[in-house]
Design a protein that fits this description.
This protein has about 140 residues and is mostly beta strands. The chain has a single domain, classed as 60s Ribosomal Protein L30, Chain: A (2-Layer Sandwich), CATH 3.30.1330.80. It contains one helix and eight strands. Strands 1, 2, 3, 4, 5 and 6 form a six-stranded antiparallel sheet that branches. Strands 7-8 form a two-stranded antiparallel ribbon. The longest helix is centred in the first third of the chain and has 12 residues.
Amino acid sequence: MKLYEGGKVGKVIILELERGDDVFEEVDRALKQSGIKDAYIASAVGSVAQLEYHRPTNMNAATEDEMLSVQGPFEFGGITGTVVDGAPHFHFSAGGVSGNYIGHLEKGTKVLYLLELVIVEVKGFNLKRKMTDEKVNKLFAKI
């Protein structure tokens, strides 16, 4: 186990994304505009017309993921995640008339009607993500 301790909560931003918005493009833009490098998703509600995501396909030592693209409509049951060094890492659950979906959210996910996100900045961390031999983007302290 690795334990990282930080300082305090910083800015809190609320985003309201509109029909056709790409979730990651808008989150990236808001993070840059607000100067937020490290954060977590406190709340997310809304719908999407298209889900772009990946999920693991086996139990091997090195992960093998499949990329999926599914057309909606879908309602998010939740989005959880972190922002480390300015890069979002979100997981989700969503349901729709075609079934339920869970995975790692990717660029290209498009809002159907609206998506409200509450993002909370955390300060005092000095972290980055680094790809390991297992093909997993893990947290490491910046040197």
